[in-house]
Automatic annotation (TrEMBL):
Top-level taxon in the UniProt lineage: Bacteria
Ranges of residues in domain Cache: 33-257
InterPro entries the record matches: dCache_1
Topology of this chain in the membrane: Multi-pass membrane protein
Protein name in UniProt: Cache domain-containing protein
Length: 311
């Protein structure tokens, strides 16, 4: 008889355990669905915040060159286009900032005072030089020379309200690539910049030689993100990612910040697993506490305090 009572007692504990675990399983499944939605939303917010910070850095990178060139324009005017003095300043600038492949000084007669270029006629007739001669700062589209990427930035030289010349610099985009690597400080997020045609101007986390060699369908990506930032799209690897993009003013470039969906789900599964084990330990703790109370090993008051701590 004692054996039967003992078996019934254990059977009661087993049934209690099963009854307790079943709702935990359903709750965990529901929580997973809710949590993955929250995780995706949090991920998109993180991408937005990180992207905006990176956008500021890229704009500052560009503006720094424009500031230098405007300062050189004022110096050129002050030196009355004196080639000797200007050449010294140009050499100093190139030494301190190797991103300058070449710097050109052009007068209002469309003559190159400083700087050497092979395709002289094509260069002087480019829209960048013509725009600067008409008084407007301009940046060229990306130029590829010997597997390297460059841009031309031209600023006008003003004498009061009149344009009397142009300062133009050919800039190596490797410095932009270096900048992006330095500010991409999250191991699970990658950022890169493309031009208006989708050509990558910087390397990516998963394709170190992407710069100048990889082209993506930028309009398709923008359309996907505009439709919904919480719906994944396939990136250049054909991998599903969550992402956001930022137009870089006056360049035609786009900054893309993205994260693999599998990484997001993996992080979410880790959270769920921790929750499952925590719930299981709570259940086992409550069952053990119940047994101790029934066998009068601990009193009601102590049991209540332990129960509060478990829950």
């Amino acid at each position: 008889m004692k054996i039967i009572k003992k078996n019934c007692k254990y059977l009661r504990y087993i049934l209690l355990l099963i009854i307790s675990i079943i709702p935990t399983i359903f709750t965990s499944a529901s929580f997973y669905k809710i949590n993955i939605t929250n995780t995706i939303e949090e991920t998109t917010k993180t991408l937005e915040i990180l992207g905006r910070r990176q956008l500021v850095s890229v704009i500052d990178w560009k503006n720094e060159f424009i500031y230098d060139l405007n300062a050189l324009a004022q110096f050129t005017l002050a030196q009355n286009f004196n080639k000797g003095q200007i050449s010294k300043m140009i050499e100093y600038m190139k030494f301190n900032k190797p991103s300058y492949r070449e710097i050109y000084i052009i007068n209002d007669k469309n003559e190159i005072i400083c700087g050497f270029i092979i395709n002289k006629k094509e260069f002087l007739n480019s829209y960048v030089i013509k725009s600067a001669l008409s008084g407007v700062e301009k940046m060229s589209e990306v130029i590829k020379i010997n597997d390297k990427l460059y841009i031309d930035i031209a600023v006008p030289i003003f004498n009061e309200e009149n344009t009397v010349g142009v300062v133009c610099a050919r800039i190596d985009l490797e410095s932009l690539n270096t900048l992006m690597k330095s500010i991409e400080n999250n191991e699970t997020i990658e950022s890169f910049i493309v031009d208006k045609n989708g050509l990558l101007l910087t390397d990516t986390k998963y394709f170190p030689e992407a710069k100048g060699n990889l082209k993506i369908d930028i309009q398709k990506i923008k359309t996907s993100i505009d439709f919904s930032k919480t719906i994944p799209y396939k990136d250049y690897r054909e991998v599903e990612v969550l992402g956001c993009y930022f137009n870089i003013n006056d360049t035609g470039w786009t900054l893309i910040v993205q994260k693999d969906v599998d990484t997001v789900k993996k992080q979410n599964r880790t959270i769920i697993e921790i929750g499952k084990y925590t719930s299981l330990f709570q259940i086992l703790g409550l069952i053990a506490l119940k047994k101790l109370k029934e066998e009068n090993i601990i009193n009601e008051e102590i049991a209540k305090k332990i129960e509060d701590k478990i829950l």
